[in-house]
Structure formats: C-alpha cells, structure tokens
C-alpha cells in the first residue's frame, strides 16, 4: 500500500510538519514500512528524509510553498502507524525560528567550553596546593661569635705620613723687611744716582755720558713705612 500527500501553501509561505505519534516497522526503511518526505511538489524533489521504527522524525520545514509526503507499507505486520500535522508560516517566522535555534546552540556550546575551563583551573590549583603542602619547611640559622684578642696582642700603629710644607713664618710684630731688591739697571731704579764714569753698580756697569748730553731722569727710591716714619709722594724733576 502506498499513500501520497501533496501539501500546498499560499505564495511566500512555508510549511512546517510535526509528528505527534510515530510507530512503524523496524528494519530497513527502504524495503519495509517507511515514511518519505520531500521538499517540493513531486517525487523527484529534494528528499528531506526516510523514516521508520519507533523514533519520531524531527520537525520538518519546507523551503517553499510545497511539501510532498509518501507512506509505503508491505501489509505484512501491523503497527500503530503515525500521526502528523502541519502549519503554514511566513518566511520571516521561519528565519526567526532558525535564528533562535542557532543562538541557543551557540550559547550551549559557550557554556560547555566555560565549564571545561573552570574545571581545568580548579584541578590545576588543587594540584599546586598539594605540592605546596607536601614540601618540607627548611630553617636556616646564622650564629655569629666574637672571640676576644689573645693576651699580649696590640693593634698595629697607624701609618704616619710627613706633613706637607707650609708657608714660611711671618716676622715678629714691629719688624719689617728691607726694601725689595732692584728690578733693573741703575738708571731705571728709584733714588738719586750719580756714579762716576766707568764705575760699576752691582751687577751692571753704568756707561759714562757723552759731553753735552741731556741728563738722565732719576726716579726716587721706593718708599715704605717703618716705625716713626710715614711714606709720601716723591717729586721728580727733569
């Protein structure tokens, strides 16, 4: 026995097929009693599936306005058969229902992954805790002992360094050194100087002046202050 149904919906609609009860002969679905569903209007349309046994098929949704169903029985055994119903829905409802199914599947997958990660972290922490508790405690003690020096021991003397030479000592108060030594030949020094011709002065020889020559300027001697004497300017006459 073969029974065929062609379900047709309005334009821009889809068909959703539900199975409330399903009880057919078990075995090979192609040779015994079975139910065949195709997505279209004929036996050559895309096959959705072939079903038999006691497991109900899932909800089937068409891609267009047609759904083709065929039931075949060899009439050798008796079973309760099946009970099915269909619903006409719009394409937007079909998309929303499929999206809800996808979102639920993704959330279930994420929750499963998070559960695995939490379990792994817990096991690692538990293992580390066991390792820490089984390690023995080691204590290091440092003892410092100060021994007194032996009898007759004396510390070495510090190394003595010679002192750096300082400035020469200053003369006693009230005593002043003499005038500074001459810094040039006699004709550039201070004070009157009229040596005889050819007469030497210190380390310098004073040459005689030629007749009629202008007399050389004689600078006054350097002045300095001693006890009971005040220095003052000296007038030079040419």
Overall description:
By secondary structure, the chain is of the alpha+beta class. The chain has one helix and nine strands, in the order E-E-E-E-E-E-E-H-E-E. It has one helix at residues 91-134, and strands at residues 2-8, 13-23, 34-39, 46-51, 60-61, 66-72, 81-90, 200-201, 204-205. The longest helix has 44 residues, at 91-134. The model is unreliable at 98-103 and 200-204 (pLDDT under 50).
Large-scale geometry: elongated
Unreliable segments of 5+ consecutive residues = 98-103, 200-204
Helix percent band:
10-25%
* Total number of strands: 9
The Cα radius of gyration reads: 67 Å
Strand content: 15-25%
Pfam families: CUB (PF00431)
Biased composition (Pro residues): 147-185
Transmembrane segments: 99-124
Protein name: CUB domain-containing protein
């Amino acid at each position: 026995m073969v029974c065929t149904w062609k379900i047709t919906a309005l334009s821009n609609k889809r068909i959703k097929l539900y199975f409330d009860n399903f009880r057919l002969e078990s075995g090979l679905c192609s040779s015994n009693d079975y139910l065949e569903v195709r997505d279209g209007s004929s036996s050559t349309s895309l096959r959705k599936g072939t079903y038999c046994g006691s497991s109900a098929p899932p909800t089937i949704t068409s891609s267009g306005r047609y759904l083709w169903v065929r039931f075949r029985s060899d009439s050798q055994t008796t079973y309760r058969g099946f009970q099915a119903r269909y619903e006409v829905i719009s394409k937007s409802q079909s998309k929303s229902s499929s999206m809800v199914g996808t979102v639920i599947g993704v959330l279930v997958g994420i929750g499963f992954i998070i559960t695995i990660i939490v379990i792994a972290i817990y096991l690692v922490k538990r293992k580390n805790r066991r390792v820490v508790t089984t390690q023995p405690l080691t204590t290091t003690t440092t003892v410092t002992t100060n021994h007194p020096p032996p009898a007759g021991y004396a510390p070495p003397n510090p190394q003595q360094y010679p002192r750096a030479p300082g400035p020469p000592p200053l003369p006693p108060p009230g005593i002043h050194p003499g005038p500074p030594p001459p810094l040039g030949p006699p004709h550039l020094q201070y004070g009157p100087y009229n040596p005889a011709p050819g007469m030497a002065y210190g380390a310098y020889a004073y040459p005689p002046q030629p007749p009629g020559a202008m007399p050389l300027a004689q600078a006054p001697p350097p002045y300095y202050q001693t006890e009971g004497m005040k220095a003052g300017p000296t007038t030079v006459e040419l």
